[in-house]
Each structure stands twice: as C-alpha cells, then as structure tokens.
Prior knowledge:
Layout: E1 2-5, E2 20-23, E3 26-29, H1 46-63, E4 71-78, H2 84-94, E5 101-106, E6 116-123
Parallel strand pairs: 4-5
Antiparallel strand pairs: 1-2, 2-3, 3-6, 4-6
Helix pairs in contact: 1-2
Protein name: 2-iminobutanoate/2-iminopropanoate deaminase
Keywords: Hydrolase
GO molecular function: 2-iminobutanoate/2-iminopropanoate deaminase
Amino acid sequence: MKEIVQTPAAPAAIGPYSQAVTFGNLVVTSGQIPLTPAGDLVSGGITEQTEQVIANLRAVLAAAGTDLDRVVKTTVFLADMTEFAAMNAVYEAHFRAPYPARSTVQVARLPRDVRVEIEVLAERH
Length: 125
C-alpha cells in the first residue's frame, strides 16, 4: 500500500504531486529543487543550489523513515552540464561508498530556472 510523505522541513509541493511516496520498503521522492522549506529560492550558483537540494532530500527521507545512506538510485537534472564537476563535488560530500546508481542529464529548463534538481529512490530502515 502506498503512503504519502509530507514534511514541513522541506519545501511544499508546488503542484499536484507529493514530496515522496512510500510503497512497501521503497521510498520514491519527487525531484527536489533549491527552495528553502519556506519556499524561497536559494541564491548563489550550482554549489549552493546542490547543497539545498540535498538538505531537502535529507528532510524528505527522514520523514519517510530513512536517510541518504539507504539511497539506491539518484537522477540528477542539470541546466548546464558544464556545472557537473561542481555539482558532483557537493554530491560526493554527502553520499558515501558504496554509492547509489546515478543518471545525470542536462535538460532544457528546470522549474523556477534553477540550476539543479535531484530525485532519489531509497529503501526504508
């Protein structure tokens, strides 16, 4: 049975979707963008934006009863692939080996014209 995950520690959904959904032992997050829990866009470049995205993911995963160590797959959407190295440096600081599987793609545009969006698939404890 699926359950909806909702936490005020991450930005509220800005459309008809949930922050995350659990199904059995799995947690599937919606893509997180660099908004604060209050809904404000983080200033700065790809480094600051990636830090906020990961903070949001941590909060959503915690509300679902898990954490970054239990992530098995990530999908990273970048507005500009030339920012991959900077995003990857932040990513690597938060995910430990054995690393989750990952796809990274450049997209034409992201919501609110942000630089990065990340979604994850994790298992619950």
